[in-house]
Specification:
The longest helix has 13 residues. This protein has about 190 residues and is an alpha+beta fold. It has 9 helices and 5 strands. The model has no long low-confidence stretch (mean pLDDT about 85). It has a single domain, classed as 3-Layer(aba) Sandwich (Glutaredoxin). Strands 3-2-5-1-4 form a 5-stranded mixed sheet, with helices on both faces.
């Protein structure tokens, strides 16, 4: 995640950032397993480390017949308990959490990645830190009330739940070039 948005808005308590999985499997066949890898890492409090790695190294795994071994090597490199991670990834344990995110996205009309919700404002497609900042500032100033989008699961979230007046929910697809570009440029 690019530090600017986190530094300016999350670390200062203005906003929370919540990432949700939205694998577009019809066009990115490996996106489901990538989302499961992120969730499995999240079970070990390393969601954001895996998130960053999946986007940064997208070209290494997106076209593989089976990216599972690649994801397992990432888990080892970021210091996860590999037995626990491998069991999670192999068993499909995280698939239901991914499916829950997909159902939430569909309920809120998400069609593409990345899609953001800043409180009640849907924003489809990548935006600059400056553009997102204006919207976050507006929401934090009370310009819009939060929408009820599930934000449970500490491993999906960054920021103080008590002080943040703006909640930014990002639905991402790890195999999407647009999500990867936006992640590297903004988040």
């Amino acid at each position: 995640m690019i530090p600017d948005l986190i530094e300016q808005y999350v670390d200062t308590g203005k906003a929370r950032l919540v990432s949700r999985e939205f694998p577009l499997t019809s066009i990115h066949p490996n996106a489901q397993k990538a989302a499961e890898a992120a969730v499995c890492a999240g079970y070990q409090d390393a969601y954001w480390e895996m998130n960053k790695r999946l986007f940064a190294d997208q070209n290494e795994w997106k076209d593989l017949d089976d990216p599972t071994d690649q994801f397992k090597s990432y888990a080892q490199e970021i210091g996860l308990d590999t037995d626990e991670f491998n069991q999670c990834l192999d068993s499909g344990e995280a698939a239901q959490d991914v499916q829950n995110d997909v159902m939430a996205a569909q309920a809120f009309g998400v069609r593409a990645t990345p899609t953001f919700f800043i409180n009640d404002m849907p924003i489809e497609g990548g935006r600059s830190v400056e553009e997102l900042g204006v919207l976050i500032d507006y929401a934090a100033a009370g310009g819009q009330r939060p929408r009820i989008i599930p934000t449970e699961g500490d491993w999906h979230m960054r920021g103080d739940t008590q002080t943040a007046r703006a909640v930014t929910v990002a639905f991402v697809d790890y195999a999407s070039p647009e999500s990867a570009q936006h992640n590297q440029e903004v988040l």
